Amino acid sequence: MVDYTPPRCPGKISWPELVGARGEDAVATIEKERIGTTAYIVPDGAVVTQNYSCTRVWVWVNADGIVKSVPKVG
């Protein structure tokens, strides 16, 4: 097994204050605060790529579209 340490990404990298917010609102906030980053709404249980990117944030939402975990760069 290879030990992997993700690269350091400058700027804000997580948004704990968005847990409980609407997914669409979270995406708008993240993309406003971190220019050049794309935030994606992902339904709970979905499969996403595991490669690390400093320009991507997964916004995990429940069935009601509410953010269920802290969105983070990656």
The total count of helices amounts to 1
Order of helices and strands: HEEE
* Overall spatial form: globular
Beta-strand residue fraction: 15-25%
Main sheet: strand order = 1-2-3
Helix content: 10-25%
Number of strands: 3
What is the makeup of the main sheet?
Answer: 3 strands, mixed
pLDDT averaged residue by residue:
92
Which consecutive residue ranges, at least 5 long each, have pLDDT under 50?
none
Distance between the termini: 21 Å
> Structural class of the helices, strands and pairings?
alpha+beta
InterPro entries: Prot_inh_pot1, Prot_inh_pot1_sf
Keywords: Protease inhibitor, Serine protease inhibitor
GO molecular function: serine-type endopeptidase inhibitor activity
Family: Belongs to the protease inhibitor I13 (potato type I serine protease inhibitor) family.
Give a description of the structure.
Helix content is 15%, strand content 19%. It has one helix spanning 23-33, and strands at 38-43, 56-61, 72-73. The model has no long low-confidence stretch (mean pLDDT 92). It has 74 residues and is an alpha+beta fold. Strands 1-2-3 form a three-stranded mixed beta sheet, covered by helices on one side.
